[in-house]
Amino acid sequence: MFVLVVGGGKVGYYLAKELIESGHEVVLMERDRTRADQIADELGSIVVAHDGCEGRYLGEAGANRADIVAAVTGDDEDNLVICQMAKHHFDVRRTIARVNNPKNEALFRHLGVDEIISPTRMVLGSIEQDIPVHELLHLAALGGGELEIIEAQLQYDSPAVGRTPGDLTIPEGCSLFAVIRDGAAIPLRPDHVFKTGDKVIAIGRNECEELLHEQLIGSPS
Amino acid sequence: MKTVIVGCGRVGAAVADSFDQAGHEVIIVDTSTSAFDRLPTSFRGSAVRGDGTDEAVLRRAGAIDADIFLAMTEGDNRNVLMAQLAAEELGARQVIAKINDPVRAAAYADLGVATICRTTLMADALAAFLGMPLSGMPSVLPASDLHHARAHRDGDPEPAATTPSQEA
Asked: What are the structural domain ranges in chain B?
């Protein structure tokens, strides 16, 4: 696999390094010449010391034959432009962008970026898992972001408590498939009676979220 | 008409002032308050300090459903990001992004964002003044309707990018 990595910060550097170690062909673009030279000293002549936002240099770095372009600079706007240029100018099949502002995730997806990596969201996710929240937790995105695996921890005031899956109105295109109770994951059976503290795991389309929230957490007050 | 301008540089401030004088509602956004010194004291629009690439900032500034959205900062990629944000999420009817790299300007016009390129604009103005051959590239590119863009607003024909004042 030929991977073009744009951005030679910590993420780009370690990404390139790991990819090389697993036998992939890698080119790394870093516009700061000092930093580029430094990386080249360590990883060999895989570095192109140019700005990956410029179409011309993306081409020179081999974007037209790249299987994947990973835009991992520290700036969301640069990562968006790199992915869009790669996609629409060089027909790269798969583009990956690092996104810092979680609000940009949906927009980037909508604008054609195939995969979004959000460090902010990841840290946020693991903080949320440690504290009881009256919200749905987003565990993972699937199918290019259209589907999500969601967790709902039932509080005492949840409308689902004391009821079975059949009593709930599960939105179309969504399925509840497991419950975590007392630290053990159990498949969700039709006779399962929900109780406070249950973590219900669901998979569904993004649009289902609102109704799912209503059914498992309660209507937003 | 509601006009949102991000980037209160010389061009942003000049456009803000002329739209304001023409009686339009103007919202101008910049990351630095001192940039607003470029606005005349007579300016009646609102000047909001904040990062124009941040959707929350734009919403707070009231930048939704603008008739015209001008992305005029010094960063090509920032302009690209906010222009698409305005068109896709904030309901802006007409969006123009300043993109100084001619290659990117052409690429984004294809992607549905009208662009204005200062590089070709000035190079051609100089060439014309000196009697040299012109680049042949347009400096203001209307959004191509090739790429969906605002197709969902059916029955609403894509307005052609009007040529802003040439005095940069």
From this structure: 2-141
Residues of chain A with CATH 3.40.50.720: 2-118
Residues of A in Cβ contact (< 8 Å) with B76: 53, 81
Class of domain B2-141: alpha beta
* A43 Cβ contact list (under 8 Å, min separation 6): A13, A16, A17, A20, A28
pTM (2 d.p.): 0.71
The domain defined by A2-118 folds into Rossmann fold (3.40.50)
- Summarised one tens digit per residue, pLDDT across range B108-160 is 998 889 999 999 999 999 999 999 998 888 888 888 764 444 333 334 444 44
Contacting A residues, span 117-176, partner chain B, CB-CB under 8 Å: none
- CATH entry 3.30.70.1450 includes domain A132-216: yes
Residue in A closest to B55 by C-alpha: A103
**B56 burial level (CB within 10 Å; 0-12, 13-18, 19+):** exposed
ipTM of the complex: 0.76
Q: Is B84 on the interface with A (CB under 8 A)?
A: yes
Nearest CA to CA, how far is B44 from chain A (Å)? 31
| Nearest neighbour of B103 by CB, restricted to A55, A78, A111 | A55
